Amino acid sequence: MSHTRTPIATGSAVTLDQVKDRARIDGDDDDAGIAMLIDTAASEIEAHCGIALLAQSVTVTLRAWCKRIPLPVGPFWVEGLAEHPVTVELLDEAGNATPHPAGFWMDCGRFPVLSLTGDGIGAAIRITYPAGFGEPASIPADLQLAVIDHAAMMYDARGLTDAPQGLSIAATRIAARHRRIGI
Question: What's the pLDDT score for residue 159?
């Protein structure tokens, strides 16, 4: 399985002022660097949890599939369906796409699942769907705190080569509540 994310919403998951307050930063000298840290922290939280914080269009390509396909990025963004509908296409060996001949339905929510109502033949299947919490105000407060804390930790640890790697302690605990559990 491979998947790509295309941003729909613009901006950052948290504000520059939130991170500067958490890291006790006065002044504007490091604002550009802190803004990059915010985007990096948000991307790390998203990758760690398998979520989209801001609205995104996710495209998944599978070479083998069944009628029930757990999708890799959640939550499913129901509010985005009008402008970003779910598409299910079959790809041939040359990469040409045709709509899947059968219908489908979605189990929406934190861990979306696409269910096909019939079979289709192709070298691969490509599914595109909207994911994320939408705008920054819709992101749960604990996930915003995870991004803020992780960005502040990365700011504090900049330039250190022997600093511990990975998410900040608070971000790790928060992210654990939002991860999909594998069985």
Answer: 73
| 53 and 41 Cβ atoms separated by less than 8 Å | no
Over its C-alpha atoms, the chain yields an Rg (Å, rounded) of 19
Residue with tokens 């930063």: 25
Contact 73, 129 (CB under 8 A): no
CATH number at 7-53+135-178:
1.10.3230.30
Residue 53 predicted with pLDDT over 80 = yes
Domain spans, the chain = 7-53+135-178, 56-131
Classify each residue of 106-135 as buried b or exposed e, where b means 16 or more C-beta atoms within 10 Å of its C-beta. beeeebbebebeeeeebebbbbbbbbbbbe
Phi-psi sector, 180: left (phi>0), alpha (psi -120 to 50), beta:
beta
Give percent of the chain with pLDDT exceeding 70: 97
Q: Hunting for tokens 């941003």 — which residue is that? A: 7
What's the rounded Cα separation, in Å, for the pair 151 and 106?
34
Long-range pairs for 105-109: beta carbons < 8 A, 24 or more residues apart = 106/76, 108/75, 108/76, 108/78, 109/74, 109/75, 109/76
Write the burial class of residue 68 (CB in 10 Å: 0-12 exposed, 13-18 middle, 19+ buried).
exposed
Mean pLDDT of the chain: 93
| pLDDT at 120 (0 to 100) | 85
